[in-house]
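Example 425, ligand L-homoserine.
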Amino acid sequence: MKRLKIGLLGLGQVGSGVYSILKSKGANLARKNGTAFVLEKIAVKHSIKKRAVHPNRKQLTTNTRSLVRDPKIDVVVELIGGIHPAKELILSALRSGKDVITANKALLAEHGRQIFGEAKRLKRHLFFEASVGGGIPVIKVVREGLVANQIRSIYSIINGTSNYILTKMSEEHLDFKEALKLAQKKGYAEADPRLDIEGIDAAHKLTILASLVFGGWVNFKDIYVRGISSIRSEDISFAEEFGYTIKLLAVAKKTADGIEAHVQPTLLPKSHVLSNVRGSYNAVLMQGDEVGDILLYGRGAGSKPTGSAVVSDLVDLARSVDSDHSFAPNLKPLKVRNISSLLSRYYLRLHVVDRPGVLAKISEVLGRQKISISDVIQKERRLGSVVPLILLTHGTQEHSLRRAVHAIDRLAVLKEKAQVLRIEE
Ligand code: HSE
């Protein structure tokens, strides 16, 4: 039987998932695929440490540099995350003639042109299923199942941590910090959770996905990114009163003026299919020109779901070692539209002094930018006290909205800066 010798970089959440799947299913996978998956070496930071899994001491090493050059190893599986030293290790593995599997969305999004370019030049395989959507096999679906389609749009929830936090805030009324702590305990969050809650992780994943489906490279820095850290429980409750949920939505569309790509907390109607994606689940809703709408749904974070995606890449690699053609984005840069030109409805939450004429002042500012109000609620409190005033607008361009909000924020009746959220219908 053929043997595929694996060098694993990292034995954290995802590495442990891969280890335990190979341990429990290795024999079965070998029988089904005609290849034995041999975990030759595992590089860890500390060789003695309490872990969820217990490899043989002889398998462990702290020397990452020699692992990626070890002639006994066929494939390097990079699961340490972050940019450095992951980038140097992957490049060194490719240059040492090894194929590479990675879950590193940050690295592929920010340095993908170099990494994919080098893999292509050296005719090495680079698989990255676990980099987007955790356990959802979205890359394989795009590569195989949707190969006959031009994808027109992607609407997605692709950060498990943020979705878990928003769900806990909405359903169990936990505060933001408590919910984040729980997500960290469950192993969903990045080592630096700011990547999750500031939307950066979702933007990394959107960069990879959009670059695969739109036929050119989307520059990560061109994607508008805003995370969920400014979302308060009251925003979730007000949105619910209007019939919406709040989700961290990652959107990319192909338009005549370029690619539209953004990640931001967004109000979605409760009846929208993505509104029912709860907890650490992810979902990717795509529209193909032939297939129409297609929805992929599954666990987007966590040790076993992400480990499952990595193992599927090992099987893919075992089947494609004889081919020199890997699925990779076209590296020609694509133009991404500036968000200010996009049209949308908006939710505004204003904390204002409750006195006569306040609503008139605010609607006058909006009127000057030709922004029409579609709905209003104001919570009844004592006259003269500070009250939340919630406005929903009709469709307007982002730049008009920004100008109006800038003027509203300067009104004396406003007690804190306005909260502004996009509404997607
Ligand atoms: N921190 C990521 C998330 C892990 O929460 O989605 C999966 O990529």
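Summary: The chain has three domains: 2-134+304-320, 138-299, 341-423.
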